Amino acid sequence: MEEDILVVDHLTKRFGTFTAVDGISFRVKKGEIVGLLGPNGAGKTTTIAMIMGFTLPTSGVIEVFGKDISKNRQEILARTNYASAYTKIPYRLTVWQYLSMFALLYDVPNAKKKIETLLKTFQLPDHKKTLGEDLSSGNIARVNLCKAFINNPELILLDEPTSSMDPDIADQVRTSISEAQKKYQTTVLITSHNMAEIEELCDRVIFVNHGKIIAEDTPEALAKRIDVTKVKLLMKDGQKRTVAYCQEHQLPIEVKERSVTISIKEEAIAGFLSDLAKQGVEYGSISIEGPTLEDYFIGEVRHV
Amino acid sequence: MSKSLKRIFAIVYRHMVVWPKDLGAMVDAFWWPSFDMLLWGLMTVYIQRQQQTALPFITSFIIGGIVFWMFVYRSQQEMGVLFLREFWEHNLLAVLSTPISITEYFIATMVVGILKLIISGVYMSFLGWILFQFNIFLFGWYLVPFILTLTVVGLWTGFLVMGLVIQYGYRVQSLAWSMIMIIMPFSAVFYPVSILPGWMQSIARFLPSSYVFESMRQVIAKGTMDVNALFIANILNLIYTILSLLFFAWGFRRAREKGIIVKFG
What we know:
The structure holds 2 protein chains of 2 kinds.
Chain A: E1 4-15, E2 18-29, E3 33-37, H1 44-52, E4 59-64, E5 67-68, H2 73-78, E6 80-84, H3 95-105, H4 111-121, H5 137-149, E7 155-159, H6 167-184, E8 187-192, H7 195-201, E9 204-209, E10 212-217, H8 219-224, E11 228-237, H9 239-248, E12 253-256, E13 259-265, H10 269-278, E14 282-289, H11 293-303
Parallel strand pairs in A: 3-8, 3-9, 6-7, 7-8
Antiparallel strand pairs in A: 1-2, 1-4, 4-5, 9-10, 11-13, 11-14, 12-13
Helix pairs in contact in A: 5-6
Chain B: H1 3-18, H2 23-50, H3 58-88, H4 92-96, H5 102-132, H6 143-168, H7 175-178, H8 198-204, H9 208-222, H10 227-258, H11 260-264
Helix pairs in contact in B: 1-5, 2-3, 2-5, 3-5, 3-6, 3-9, 6-9, 6-10, 9-10
């Protein structure tokens, strides 16, 4: 049986009358990458803050490595690490000085070698002497990730690590996280509202909204809970007939110039296309998109 | 080196390495104290020349007051600003996510404050001697308890500021520079406690700094020192240090309960 690295049991956090986290329970096993997914204000960051001890829970228990965080914080933090898009690098510290500081804080053996290796892993070997104030947002995230792996942590908590990055940089950072996680066999709990990030990185997703866990599964299984597929047609002839058909059969349709997108159950696609052919509808191209985690996310958020 | 010492050293390293690169910190450490000394020093030299017999020690009183007050002001300011720096640079969460304990963090902050204070103190003493022939060593061994007592006044005031900053963040950041000024008029830095109005004298009796500045003037004028006064000052310091640390601990817990550390850190 795989070891539970993190156990969260009936965790609740209230700020006055507002309940940010409402009795959530979940477990993270050794070596897993688990995504804490949800819209803004769902309680993701508050949950991470309670696991790290930045915020005190109103009730509930958090156990990391089988130990209660409220009683063994220092011991647990020595084996854990954390990175957030919201923490910055001090303006006048160089990257090397910043990482050296954390090497001392975590008592890292052979710190110099370790920092060199991490700078290579996260593609920053030329930035040793760059000041915090001169780093781009992508490089700040990379330095934060170097810091997050500096003590070979058994558990890393990443709070929206690619937030506000452009897609290319975010993709590079995700690749770096994935490679480093494999290299160091680290357990990762990551919060995000970026679906692509969660789908790409996570073995399992915990979907939270209004402080409660709505669903917990693999990204693929969550996406499959949405049984609607999108059929996109680039029309040549018969656009009006297609719209009329969809309205008659109550199929949601979006029309943008010559392009129409119809939301339809997967098993009904063949019949739908056959009916269009019988009516003499002609289209230049067709694409069929299966449900994504984003469809699930939007569906759940709007539904709740 | 033990793990605990390494963690303390990490914070000391983080602050000391950026100090020479920070123009604002250099201005606070050297420019303003020099400016104060020059301004007040020249003014007192002028007054002394006008009324030579009335206040024979006025230059020493004022320069001594400036140099010694610097220990209170700078130690308080360093504590407040070092802590605020973690907020300004969004580094507090990163530091608190490590195994460093709050006690280790406090010790590190005090070490940084004291290191900077030693540098500023040597500089100010040298400046006083060069500009006004004020020899700080005229206090002999009394220097040690004077400086220590005043530094501790700055430290506990700094702990109070940190306790407020952790709860209210940027809203109270100006206290890092101004908090100590609240006690300055009652501390009788440049004048004797006896000239204060009655109600101010009552407050002065509860301030360790007022006993030190009275003693300083006594040493300059008579060459003797009231040991009892220093004893009272340090008993008060002990009480206020304990209370200010308890206040910080309470504020830190409250900040964790209210989720303030995540908001500002």
